[in-house]
């Protein structure tokens, strides 16, 4: 015997596991009339530009909020508020897709005051708008908590007029204090001072958003395998944001191969912006252009390291190249 709510969810594309999660989180959904209560919410979510898979994902994550009678009004209010700040339907849809659960918040309560706090300390409105579209969840906390985060980030040396200031806020907001403290202690174990940690964070906030495991593995490789000095890593802390297996290991080992053959120019140093900052396509084009004769060999070597890195332990690669 089937149940109308279960049939409805299945027809909307929910897997058995997702249906189970919805029922476990919100058992009362089984008492709903699918056509009168559930369907209008699904139609509304679809009408604002969410795909079926996105719709299923957000309902599974927060079914009580998404399937409540209040949701439809809240959703429209959220959409209208975001449009009043961002200015266009396209930007609103982008923001919602970035963080669909924003639709379950009263943005007039959460976002308005926090935006005012930022404006008061000189954060440009265009920066605020960009962050609201890119990371709406950054703003979704009480004004008291948000004000404290803003103060903490300023105290770390961030300039409110710069885009990095908001990314610093986002990074601090994205983790608990205990997680933040664990990452600070991890960097200290690698010999970094607190000032150096804050300097690295100010340059590239993402260096504190990487997982503890990722930070450990990257530092192990660039210090113990490549021989990078601490000061260099602090200056280029963006390296912590890159994929170890897909970018750092294969590119560094190709550079190492060239260095051993004397084919790197000392005046260029490691040439970080080209070796690690370039996209995959641009990197390959640059290698082919700069090393025309060696290019076929280098590309083959690069692909070999790329394949091996995804299954290797970088701590076993102990060939060093001094920066």
From TrEMBL:
Q: Name one Pfam family in it.
A: mTERF
Highest taxon above the source species: Eukaryota
What InterPro entries does its record include? MTERF, MTERF_sf
SMART domains annotated for this entry? Mterf
Q: Name one GO biological process term.
A: DNA-templated transcription termination
Q: Where are the transmembrane segments?
A: none
**Mind listing the UniProt keywords for this protein, alphabetically?**
Transcription, Transcription regulation, Transcription termination, Transit peptide
Q: Per its record, what are the GO molecular function terms?
A: nucleic acid binding
The keyword Protease is annotated on this UniProt entry: no
Protein family per UniProt? Belongs to the mTERF family.
Cross-referenced PANTHER family:
CGI-12 PROTEIN-RELATED, TRANSCRIPTION REGULATOR MTERF FAMILY
- Please give the name of this protein: Mitochodrial transcription termination factor
The organism named in the record is Artemisia annua (Sweet wormwood)
Taxonomy of origin reads: Eukaryota, Viridiplantae, Streptophyta, Embryophyta, Tracheophyta
